[in-house]
Amino acid sequence: MERWYVNKDGHKKGPYTIIELETLFRKHQINEKTEVQKEEESEWHPLSETSLNSHLGQKRHGVLSHVDHLTGEATHADLKVADLFKDVFKKHKKGEGNKIFIVGTAETTPPENQISSSWPRPWVYSRVFIVLAITYALLLACTYIFGNANTIPGLMVIGSFTVPFSALIFFFETNAPRNISIFDVVKMFFIGGVAALVATLILYSIIPVGKLNYFNALLVGIIEETGKMVIVALFIKSLKSKYVLNGLLVGAAVGAGFAAFESLGYAFNYSIEALALTKNVTFASDTMLEIIFARGWQSIGGHVVWAAITGAAIVLAKKGSSKLEMHHLFTGEFWKIFIIPIILHFLWDCPLNPLPQIAFKQIVLIIVAWIVILTLMSTGLRQVSRLEKEHKTTNAL
């Protein structure tokens, strides 16, 4: 049986079996850049340059092994979509989750040459979802089993925030550069989300929109995606983000806040209108719950991912520059990607709606949006890998 040593912070650890190394790799204690030495050999090599690479699943074959049509670059950062869910069903120690949330500070942001370019295995987002879902269920019990009307506002808030915020944590975990703190993420969620609503309302006051026919649905897509884009661009400029994965995270934060507060508004207004029209409290409460549920599951392919795509488009338009300037938003690189969330939003709102009983249109658009997201994640990881190689070349010179 093969046995290997690991160079851990300058210390020789091991020997380990391949199974033991797989465990270390899964727990992110080693990665493809870690130096390893076969037991009977004397030279050290990066893990990615040894036979361990295939054993530990670094050579992946999946849906993204093709030319990246968004950037025009060839990609070998293939993906098994299952990798994004593998760790969800595994048991994790409390300390593992804590390590994920302490990133983004001066002490915890890794240097560029130590950023992992392998596909991430996020899992904390699922635990955040469970916590919020349990909270929602308890509030539901307070409201409908015990008849306590004081918990209705909390029910609407938690119900509207559960899915968008959990999706945001997914993007936080997949931000490989680990250079944005959870405080910044929460700040962008609240301030950015509401600021995007304000920006959108300003645009609506300038360009009024009537009944949602095809033309007005297109206007809604342009107005709302532009409103969010302005706020996403401001945060990217403030953070001086140069990574595509940063753009995805910043966009997702603003989009998640936008989605959560918008859903909360819909849940409140529709329940009030239902009560005013029917004078039936039960019907009004059922309407509120239907709105929360429908907008909740659909938000995984709505404002959160649309704004994430926009954030990635902004970073790609900068072409590695740390400074965002106005002319970047008028380039072909930006518009060929920014047009995607506008079109997705238009199709979502337009009258075309086959098989509405099973939300067929929404399901198809969610799948399309996530194909784009995964492609952009591939682009982001390839960017990290390219920057690492440039860093090594510079140091060698």
UniProtKB/TrEMBL annotation:
GO biological process annotation, one example: proteolysis
Cross-referenced Pfam families: GYF_2, PrsW-protease
Transmembrane segment boundaries: 124-146, 152-173, 185-207, 213-236, 243-261, 297-317, 329-348, 360-381
One function term, GO molecular function aspect: metallopeptidase activity
Annotated GYF domain residues: 4-49
The keyword Hydrolase appears for this protein: yes
UniProt keyword terms in alphabetical order: Hydrolase, Membrane, Metalloprotease, Protease, Transmembrane, Transmembrane helix
Domain of life, per lineage: Bacteria
Protein name (database record): PrsW family intramembrane metalloprotease
